[in-house]
């Protein structure tokens, strides 16, 4: 989150709010640039505070925020979904050479079975073009996606690291694994080392490298493990620092708390499986480093990522 200003939207009203953290002269404009400086700003001020932005509440918008010292592109990170919990824009992070990840290209998400009509209208305004679904066939049958009409391509590539069925997870059984924590470490090692999983993530990056297929939303059921690893791969490829990537990963605990509260209260043995811990992602990172020397080597040699091309396209 930026030190100067950021945008949020209430998931019920979807009204955009500007949060200004510093008492400096500022102006905010709709859009990613201010090519027409004669146009009036949406708002202007000199004080810190929270301000309602007078724009269409169902239209995703990026904003240009100007102060005497800096120009920022802003949008909401956590999307205002009444029927979703963990749907986020990966824009705004500082990447390679001090540039930032572009907003409005990459969206990580949990399942999309309960999205409202207004949720779909908002996603359509982005517009989401491609959906990449990492869920198993059973997960898809149980909770089929509701998608906006803007979607032109749906890629379903099931991943099941750890080889444990959703039914076993619900019953608190983890096959040969001693406990849920041991199981999660196996999951993250397999997300890195399994050749079938590697092939899925290679296809994911091939879509990203073709700009015509973006904006892309990629998801699983919780949006934290299979999706979390994909988000980490992407942010590493864009040069985002390790601490920020772990912070993005850990944010799933905040956003998923309401989704699984009843389930984990009644089945406390499942609390681990429905949350994330830093050492799970670190297990994945260390597996990449052990096998390829560095994360960048892993991305280039195993997932066929053209790091220079991705950075030239998606950093500003």
Reported by name, the CATH topology of the largest domain is Protein-Tyrosine Phosphatase, Chain A
- Reading side by side through the largest sheet, how are the strands ordered? 8-9-12-10-11
- Domain count: 2
Q: How many H/I helical runs?
A: 10
Sheet-strand content, in percent, reads 15-25%
Characteristics:
single chain; 316 residues; alpha/beta; Protein-Tyrosine Phosphatase, Chain A; five-stranded mixed beta sheet; four-stranded antiparallel beta sheet; 10 helices; 12 strands; 36% helix; 15% strand; globular
Task: List strands and helices in order, with pairings.
Layout: E1 5-9, E2 16-20, E3 26-30, E4 43-45, E5 49-52, E6 63-66, E7 71-74, E8 88-89, E9 106-109, H1 117-125, E10 130-133, H2 137-142, E11 153-156, H3 166-170, H4 180-193, H5 195-208, E12 216-219, H6 226-237, H7 242-266, H8 278-292, H9 295-301, H10 307-314
Parallel strand pairs: 9-12, 10-11, 10-12
Antiparallel strand pairs: 1-2, 2-5, 3-4, 3-6, 6-7, 8-9
Helix pairs in contact: 4-8, 6-7, 8-9
